[in-house]
Amino acid sequence: MYPELWKGVHASVCSIVAFQNGHRIASGTGFKSSDKIVTNYHVIQAPGVTDFQLRFTMEDGYSDSISKWVTSGVMEASLADSMPVDSWDYAILDLDWEELGSVPSLNLTPGSDCPIGLPIALFGYQFDQPNLSIHAGILASKFVANGVKLLQLDASVNQALEYGNFGCNRHCHTKAYWTDRTVRRVDAEL
Known about the structure:
Elements: H1 2-9, E1 13-20, E2 23-33, E3 36-39, H2 41-44, E4 51-57, E5 64-71, H3 72-77, E6 79-83, E7 90-93, E8 119-126, E9 132-145, E10 148-155, E11 165-172, E12 175-179, E13 182-184
């Protein structure tokens, strides 16, 4: 299951690194859905950011298939929809790049379609590591907090600050979701 998922998903997941005057200050993971990039809002709102690097990798998880630098102004202008960290913590970016046409798109699907106990795979860029990684786990629970329907994962996400994934794409067969520690359904139109 996991080798096939890797082949079908890796090309759609990107690293987003924030820089302040040439110094790395934050990073996260995003993925392409439709013609947009979905990530966590806090990734693109780090204080003092001057530039971002977005990169997609080849099947080896390391070599660049696309790497693009943009200013914080371009990133801010591309924000199509978002919710801040204290709510759903997502950002949808509408980046008009010719290169993105070659990146496969993942489909968003409601979490209600996935039963508790379902095997899952999580894709993300680990802290201070340039390579894309995959982690296995299960859908452990479904619950509501502050009016938001959430899915809880049991997987090695955020296992250790220096090696755990922070934000990552979660894959349920061919259905994609976004997660930092729990899965959050993105209700914005893509």
